[in-house]
Design brief:
The chain has 196 residues and is α/β, with parallel strands linked by helices. It is 30% helix and 28% strand. The protein contains 6 helices and 7 strands. It has a 7-stranded mixed sheet, with helices on both faces. The chain is globular, with a radius of gyration of 17 Å. The two termini are 19 Å apart.
Length: 196
Amino acid sequence: YYLEKGLKAAAVYSTARELEKSYDHIGFVRLRNSPNDEVLMALAMQLQQEQPIPDDGSVMSDPQACPGGYEIDVIAGIESRGFLFGFLLAQEMNKPFVPIRKQGKLPFHTISESYKLEYGQATIEMHEDAIQEGTKVLMHDDLLATGGTVVAASKLVEKLGGVISGYSFVISLDFLQSSGRLTRFSENICSLVHYD
């Protein structure tokens, strides 16, 4: 589901941020000691009487949203919501899909990369035979926030000799200015929804 950029989307986002201040009082459960943004956004949409735009395929295929034009050999998706559209992108583009998962979840020999979170440290892994030297990778995740996970995933690709051809996100929190962390890997950064 998507919201069109504009005043209504801004009102929903503002409402979600206000709800976040009362998160514990409302009685929502925290995930990893952090508020769940999806719950906040869903409730904010209800309070603003805003309906999401169901994606019938036209949003993902909009050439103005993601112009493309660069070579891709594989699609890499970051656990777990990056799998949702990553699988579909790979299927639509007839490309292999490479999962990047939390430590200890992949069944074969892996390489890993650790990175800092607001509340600690995390490690992600990729199969060591997932890509070859020179493989051109489109990295997909649902949300570009601080960029820590995506940077770590990009480093995994580089460790195996791969090249990041581009990034695709459903949502980008532009006010965090994280895209600057990705441009050292690729200038091709596509997000369908932007929050300033």
